[in-house]
Write a structure and sequence with these properties.
Blueprint (H helix, E strand, L loop, with lengths): L10 H10 L1 E4 L3 E7 L6 E6 L6 H17 L8 E7 L8 H15 L4
Parallel strand pairs: 3-4
Antiparallel strand pairs: 1-2, 2-4
């Protein structure tokens, strides 16, 4: 589980990132990002009800959150990220998700 200092929870934070941030997509998720004043990277996760029932949505969110927690060094400090999980993620293996995360963060110019 991500530590509290790395989590985005407030609705206003999500809205600000969607409206004023930039985005990059991969087959498994879309990531919105924006600079922030926080010294650590903060991450938020969003899953549409189109993905399935609550059990399915929460499982996909937990998978991506854990992958991000294990790879926190990829994320630049002073930046907020919101991940929107796509339907393809349900069929992805852990290694496919990890490769997509590494590739996406490299494109964003993170620490990798």
């Amino acid at each position: 589980m991500l530590a509290k200092k790395f989590r985005l929870k407030e609705r206003g934070d999500f809205r600000r990132i969607y409206q004023r941030g930039r985005s990059l997509a991969c087959p498994y998720f879309v990531v919105y990002y924006r600079s922030s004043r926080s010294p650590e990277p903060r991450l938020g996760f969003s899953v549409s009800k189109k993905l399935g029932n609550a059990v399915t949505r929460n499982r996909q969110r937990r998978r991506l959150a854990e992958l991000c927690r294990l790879n926190l060094e990829l994320f630049a400090p002073n930046r907020d990220y919101v991940f929107i999980i796509r339907n393809q993620m349900k069929r992805a293996t852990y290694s496919q998700l990890e490769a997509a995360l590494h590739k996406t963060m490299a494109q964003l110019g993170g620490k990798s």
